[in-house]
Amino acid sequence: MARLAQTAGLTDVQQEILKTVREFVDKEIIPVATELEHRDEYPQQIVDGLKELGLFGLMIPEEYGGLGESLLTYALCVEEIARGWMSVSGIINTHFIVAYMLKQHGTQEQKEHFLPRMALGEVRGAFSMSEPGLGSDVSAITSKAVKDGDEYVLNGQKMWLTNGGTSTLVAVLCRSDEGHPEGTAPHKSMTTFLVEKEPGFGEVRPGLTIPGKIDKMGYKGVDTTELIMDGLRIPANRVLGGQTGRGFYQMMDGVEVGRVNVAARGCGVAQRAFELGVSYAQQRHTFGKAIAQHQAIQFKLAEMATKVEAAHAMMVNAARKKDSGERNDLEAGMAKYLASEYCKEVVEDAFRIHGGYGFSKEYEIERLYREAPMLLIGEGTAEIQKMIIGRRLLEEYRVQG
Ligand SMILES: Cc1cc2nc3c(=O)[nH]c(=O)nc-3n(C[C@H](O)[C@H](O)[C@H](O)COP(=O)(O)OP(=O)(O)OC[C@H]3O[C@@H](n4cnc5c(N)ncnc54)[C@H](O)[C@@H]3O)c2cc1C
Predict the structure, then answer these.
(1) Which of 82, 200, 222, 356 sits between 20 and 30 A of 211, alpha carbons compared?
(2) pTM of structure
(3) Which of 284, 286, 262, 266 has the alpha carbon at shortest distance from 274?
(4) pLDDT for 210-253, tens place per residue?
(5) Half-sphere exposure at residue 247, Cβ-oriented, CA atoms within 13 angstroms
């Protein structure tokens, strides 16, 4: 029988990349992930290894020093990495979203300035829409940019920046009234600013403070922070694409590929939970036989494996749609919604199979149990995905007349 989550139609190059990443995950990530996670320690050695593999430049075009691979290749790599440790996939995800936004929307000068160093992992990206008062409702953003000569002055507070401390380039979404008078639709008066900064915490650039890490229930190791702008001056040539008022669309484009990435993470975490469950079920004995021989446990394994397969198929479909140049908001929304819900359920079942031991920090499933919920929230909650899916369905199935 084929192993779960296989992907048909991959090229030799894609297969080779995936094999390399899988070996790296098995050798360098899985053996240390749980220990590092319990210490909330940044996986510097793993990140250095990913740099060497060229993972930070996987989707950056070859002319800028990257590997020029597709979203599908990237998503399959993310799936493998998340199987090892979800936090590591978080480290490359925001970097990738920013590189993608630059590639799609940046000026030529911006691409040449950032992309070659991003491909090497020397410049590392974070992206910032959320604020303390909003996450789902992006149109309510209050951070503000005001033009002052050749610069913009930014003020406001941002929340939940993945890689907020370790990144050196943050794509920040602000409201910008210049050229967009009072009464302009909210999504037409937003601008993405490319904010360069030093890594670390405290005042990392005049007018820009990154307070310490937010203490989280899971998804540890990777830093998640706030960002405070107090008179932060950004030159006009660091407006993404050189034009104000385009920020909302640019961010939504980035989030669309981010959703495929979160779906891929859900697939990876669910696969790992299945692997742990199916292995434990064959080792633990009750009532004279391995628990895998009890039909109730076999049914659980069957349900888990079916969910792993279904989520993988939808994630691959969403990635291929985007790679074909078509709009994929429906497919990405469905994949993100299904993969994150299934991930939570598969992890829960693997946890139950472990009995009391699942509750012990000595067992890997305990870590997965704290990681899975983040996928229900990041890159848009389940409710937001359903709103996107519902709206698109009504467009497609509009009743005429
Ligand atoms: C670990 C972590 C990392 C993150 N990283 C980043 C990052 O790098 N960059 C970034 O910008 N953001 C990041 N986020 C923020 C994330 O995108 C938001 O948390 C998410 O979008 C939800 O927003 P919220 O937390 O404000 O919840 P809210 O928007 O306040 O929602 C609260 C609840 O209400 C529901 N709800 C909201 N509106 C509706 C509606 N219209 N109809 C029905 N239900 C609704 C939601 O589904 C949810 O259940 C991160 C979050 C976490 C936890």
Answers:
(1) 82
(2) 0.96
(3) 266
(4) 999 999 999 999 999 999 999 999 999 999 999 999 999 999 99
(5) 30
**Ligand 1 centre and the CA of 114: distance in Å?**
29
Question: What's the CA gap between 2 and 134, in Å, rounded?
Answer: 44
- Measured from the Cα of 158, ligand 1's closest atom is 11
Q: Which two tokens stand for residue 304?
A: 């888990």
Phi, psi of 299 (to 5 degrees): -65, -40
Distance CA 97, CA 10 (A): 23
- The two tokens of residue 9 are 């139609």
In CATH, 249-396 is 2.130.10.10: no
94 in contact with ligand 1, CB cutoff 6 A: yes
Q: Where are the beta strands (DSSP E) in 189-308?
A: 190-196, 202-205, 208-210, 224-235, 285-286, 289-290
| Atom of ligand 1 minimally distant from the CA of 381 | 47
**Quick one: which atom of ligand 1 is closest to the CA of 382?**
47
Indicate the domain borders of the chain: 12-119, 125-245, 249-396
Q: Cα of 143 to ligand 1 centre, how many Å? A: 17
The finding on whether 129 has its CB within 6 A of some atom of ligand 1 is: yes
β-sheet bridge partners, residue 230: 155
CATH of domain 125-245: 2.40.110.10
**Protein residue closest via CA to atom 13 of ligand 1:** 160
List, for residues 13-69, the tens digit of each pLDDT value: 999 999 999 999 999 999 999 999 999 999 999 999 999 999 999 999 999 999 999
Whether the per-residue pLDDT at 376 is higher than 60: the answer is: yes
Rounded CA separation 307/314 (Å):
11
